[in-house]
Every structure is written in structure tokens, then in C-alpha cells.
Amino acid sequence: MTATEAPPQTTPLKAKQRLGDIVFSRTSLASGAAILVILALVAVFLIAQSLPALVVDPEKFIGSPPSLWDYVWPLVFGTLWSSALALAMALPLAVGIALFISHYAPRRLSQFLGYIIDLLAAVPSVVYGLWGIGVLAPAVLPAYAWLTENLGWIPLFSGPVSGTGRTILTASIVLGVMILPVMTAICREIFLQTPVLHEEAALALGATRWEMITMSVLPFGRPGIISGAMLGLGRALGETMAVAMVLSPTAIVSFALLQSTNPSTIAANIALSFPESYGVNVNLLIFTGLVLFVITLIVNSIARYIVNRRKDFSGAN
């Protein structure tokens, strides 16, 4: 080929797609689209079934509340209050257990503890409810009495203390135990993915193991911690049987943790009231389900926003 001749034109080679790749790609696309469709159908169903409750006279509702929101608001408060208490108790324990498994425990012990954590995550909620009624509620009565006697001046621990132990605090403890394995498993996997170079660099600079964890592991795992916390919070918000079995609910708004009158949650109220409801009361319960649907969607959206702000940190996301 002389210097004046143009190089021959070559057509770009295209990789031949195999049948398995095509099937997997289209199946994944269809599955993702199906999730959106199902979510939209659930939202449409809840909205359509809730409309009669928005236009009917509140006197036809259970208990004849002054307005629709007077019925819904105590349930929303109880749902958020019990879930927040459960998250506040379970999250520090989940992070601590995950750090122990990933960076402190011997290899055999960490494998055994990881297996136990995964097993606890699969325990049905009704089992936790039975444990809360039969074991936890009687066991915490002396502690509740001590709190009321010594810290009763704080509104959270004001009396009179419940004689059965079935209080909002007991239900929150049960919820915290339920969501603990899920959050622990997620935090553990995130901590194990911390780049080894980051850990070795901190140790090489003279940091102790705990200083290495605070400088490398926890900042790297922050998105995972948030994701695990929001996943656990989502389960606590929607938990039904454990709360319905443990709690003795009333339609009130109260921050007191140890009294016999406690706010109920949306999910537990639906489970307890649905068998005896008829007519517009069924639509009322579906409307409370719509409110819970919106709350859960908002919580997950906030969590996704927080995680996305940290996704550029060392490839953590």
C-alpha cells in the first residue's frame, strides 16, 4: 500500500449475543417493569377503595369519631412512635454486633454468629408475639415498676404502670428484636466489603483497631447502615401480628411508655378490626392502609436520597 492510498475501511465487529444473555436481559427488564406495575396497581386499589371513606359522614365509622383524621391520627402516631422506639433500641446493637462479627470475633465464631443472625431473621412474627406475651411482658414488670418509682417525674415513665406489662415499650422491644437480625446482616456484609487497603493504611499510621474502624469502616459502611436501618424501620412500620398480640391498644395519643392505655398501630388495628367491619368501615380501614403505604414510601424515598448523597465515597454504593 502506497502513501497516497487510503487505508481500507473496516466495519466494527459486533459481539454476537448468546441466547442466554438475551433471555436474561429481557427477563430482568420484564421483572423490573412488573414491580412498577404491581406497585401502581396496589396504589390504585387503595385509592379507589378509600374514596368512600373520604365522603361519608364520620358518624358511620367505628366509634363515631368527630372526623376521619381524628380516627387516623392516633394510629399514625402509634405506628411512628413504636417504630421509632424499636429503631432507636435496635440500630446501635445491630452496628455493634456486625462490627464484632466482621472485625473482632475469630473466624469460626463469626461464621457461627452469622448463621444464627440469618436464622433469627427467618423466625415468623407470631413467634416473637408469643415470646413477648409469655416471657417478655412478665419479666419487665419489676423494671417498669422501678422506672415509675424513680423516674416517674419524666413524662415517658409516668404511672400508673401496667399490671400486665403489655405496653407500647414492650411492643417496641419486640419490634426491635424482630428487626435486629435484618439490620445486623446488612451491616455485617457492608463492613466486610471495606477496602483492605483503607484498613491497612489506618493501622500502618499507628491507629488502634477501634480508631481504624471509626476512620475507615464506619464511613465506608454509612450508606449500608442507613439502608439497613430503613429496611428495619419499614418492617417495624408494617408489622402486624406481634404488635396485635402484645399491645392492648386504645385510640389515644400518648408518649407514656409504661401505662396500660397505649396507642395502636395501623397494621395491628387493621388486623384486629377487619373481621368485624362491614360497609364503609372496611373502606376506612383500607384508607388507613393507604396512609401506611404513603408513610413507607416516604421513609424509603428519604433513605434512598441519603444513600445517593454518599454513593461517590470509595465506591460504597
From TrEMBL:
One GO cellular component this record assigns the protein to is: plasma membrane
Family, similarity comment: Belongs to the binding-protein-dependent transport system permease family. CysTW subfamily.
**Biological function:** Part of the binding-protein-dependent transport system for phosphate; probably responsible for the translocation of the substrate across the membrane.
- How is this protein named in the record? Phosphate transport system permease protein
- Write out the transmembrane intervals: 28-51, 71-101, 113-146, 166-187, 240-258, 278-303
**Which membrane topology describes this protein?**
Multi-pass membrane protein
Q: Which GO terms describe its molecular function?
A: phosphate transmembrane transporter activity
Q: Which Pfam families match?
A: BPD_transp_1
Q: Which residues form the ABC transmembrane type-1 domain?
A: 76-303
Q: Chief location of this protein?
A: membrane
NCBIfam families hit by this protein: phosphate_pstC
Q: Some GO term, biological process aspect, for this entry: which one? A: phosphate ion transport
Entry keywords, A to Z: Cell membrane, Membrane, Phosphate transport, Transmembrane, Transmembrane helix, Transport
Q: Where in the cell is it found?
A: Cell membrane
